[in-house]
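ok so i was messing around last nite and threw this chain in just to see what happens. nothing serious, just curious
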Amino acid sequence: MLTESEKDRLDKDGFLLLESLIPPNTTAQLRECSLSLATSEQKAGKSHTYLANHCAQRVWNLVDKGEIFEEAIQQPKMLAAMEYLLGTDCTLSSFTVNVLYPGAPDAGLHIDYPLSALPTPRPNFPMVANSVWFLDDFTLENGATSCVPGSHRRLEALPEPGMEYADEKQICGPRGSVLIVNGAIWHGSSENKTNIPRVGLLGFFCRSILKPQQAHSNLVSDSVISRATPTLKRLLGFDSLPNMNT
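result:
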């Protein structure tokens, strides 16, 4: 479902913005559910926060936190991009809410784990990739994701903390867009200078041979598994689990 032009863009730049991919009503529902989950975890004292002053928050294991998320992670064009990068048997590594609250600082540039832990030169083909779901307009002011085009080909280098790069650019777009990011690209969230939370989702994928961030087969409920489509079961890792033959 990707055009040749879109594939070329992913190959050349290492990222691709799929503008207005998610319908407005679905985007609004995803945002409402995401903030509700974030608030609930805060009230329960179980929130996962990071960055200075706890100005950013993640909510993990979304596949088990609402059918709307089960359906979202199977979005056909987003999956087509992941399968182009990682193979048709790629699996879901994690699916999370990502909230940048007002005052959240620039997070700096990074490449995704496990690439950041590998010896150099790193593989010259994609191993992991992220989908950044814009549940708000992503702007220069509210922390739109920064990327350095072509940096996935810098197999020996890593971004230096605190360094500004002339070719770094923020990827802005309307709510409902999904940014596809090769995990080897130098990327990161920027400062939220507004007084409104910037809400997104992160659908992180890996090749089926890799260990995902979360063991979905152990985390998701039986009800999710019982109604899962073949695609969702594959994304949750059921097709790549080792044989249990004795």
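not much to say yet. Helices lie at 4-13, 24-43, 67-72, 76-86, 216-219, 222-227, 230-235.
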